[in-house]
Amino acid sequence: MMVVMRNSSVNLRAAAKEASRERIVNAAAKAIRRSGYDGTGVADIMKEAGLTHGAFYAHFESREAMLAEAADRAGAEANALAASIVGAVPYDQALQALIQVYLSKEHLVNIETGCPNSALCSEMPRQSPEVRLAATRRIKEMVDLIARQFPDWGQPSAHERALVTMATLVGTLVLARAVDDAALSDAWCNATLKSLASGKTQVEG
């Protein structure tokens, strides 16, 4: 009986610790998109997660380790959403559906829950190798997801078109968020929607 109770206590503590870690990572994944890597501090994240600052090192060896996991989580969330969008419509409409959602007004304004690439890519060269590795892995996943929507998926031409498409989407959103002119912001998104729909930014196979 004592062994069973001891094991149950250990399991409960482990579950509580895992739940706390999840709160930290979720808070950090939003914070890096909202405030950038440099603007994301341990104290603020722990407060947002409802935990004490001193408890941080029970979960992570360093701030960089937390940022790497946050980058991975943010990328995974964005990729899962993209996969759900393309999976919800017929194959021949999937890419256009993804482009429309990516360049939507909702995505434009909801930066902390949106694509981390458009929120953070300008900061990536200055980040630690572990943060860049985590982000790069998720970026490659998104490129592959886009490439799968082309009829010649599996060929170099599809991969090239996916690279151009993703770069165009990310760049457009970065610029649309950067300016303080709503009309110009909308014009950038609309021009990209029109250009991608016509195939003008795609690399010829």
Structural category is: mainly alpha
Give the termini distance in whole angstroms. 69 Å
Which range does the strand content fall in? under 5%
Task: Tell me the major beta sheet.
Answer: none
Considering DSSP H and I runs of 4 or more, what fraction of the residues is helical?
A: over 70%
Which architecture name does CATH use?
Answer: Orthogonal Bundle
| Individual helix count | 9
Q: Tell me the CATH topology.
A: Tetracycline Repressor, domain 2
Please state the average pLDDT score. Answer: 91
Structure summary, number of beta strands: 0
What is the CATH homologous superfamily assignment? Tetracycline Repressor, domain 2
The stretches of 5 or more residues where confidence is low (pLDDT under 50) are: 201-205
Textual characterization of the structure:
The chain is an all-alpha fold. The protein has one domain (2-198): Orthogonal Bundle (Tetracycline Repressor, domain 2). It is built from nine helices and no strands. The longest helix has 34 residues, at 2-35. The radius of gyration is 20 Å and the shape is globular.
Task: Give the helices and strands, then pairings.
Blueprint: H1 2-35, H2 42-48, H3 63-87, H4 91-102, H5 105-109, H6 116-120, H7 129-147, H8 156-178, H9 182-198
Helix pairs in contact: 1-3, 3-4, 3-7, 7-8, 8-9
